[in-house]
Amino acid sequence: MFRLDGKVAVITGGARGIGAGVTHALAAAGARTAVVDRDPVRAGSPPGRTMTVQADVADAAQVEHAFAAVHDAWGAVDILINNAGVAAREPFEDITSDSWDAVFAVNTRGAFLCAQTALRYMRHQRGGRIVQIASVTAHQGALLGHAHYAASKSAQLGLTKTLSRVCAPFGVTANAIAPGVIRTELSSATLGPSTLAELGATIPLGLGSVDDVAHAAVYLASDEARYVTGITLDVNGGQYLR
Description:
alpha/beta; Rossmann fold; seven-stranded parallel β-sheet
């Protein structure tokens, strides 16, 4: 079960953190993985089964180039993991329009551009999987100065629901994962070690790991989830219940 043999997966922001964990899990399930990231990429999957493309997902031309490179190399785009994201910890009253736009450019416009481009390939293949990595803040809001981040992740959930309807006629599913507090470089940098530890103490199952999110992504990308679309899978250790 949950095998991805022969599938080609594109993971945005896959160089580190949750993206790297998802990349490794998809590769372990048999997929060929293409990491799209704007920073130098550290790929750790088996040689010949991973490629890297440097691109900014907020730039339409770079997104087009990245997906074309993957399709030229492997002849398909079967799975898209929209993971690329940025966050900024700023008090609500101090958020500038430039800061707001910078967060939305990656988290929301980037997710839209990648989904739109991936669907062009998937519709011709009559099948595919789109998985958005959102956030628990899309449900409960942000309490620590991340209003723009929470709003951008809420927008991702709305995009996911619409994609599930748009994509269904082509045999393509669209789902989201809403992680809670996951121990990553990004969460440590934006929250700080002490705040991260304090948050973990309030969560019934404690802090999550990238593997917790990665396993959920493998499921949603698999054939076993072929009749699952438009949902948000909460991976938050009991932090938020709905």
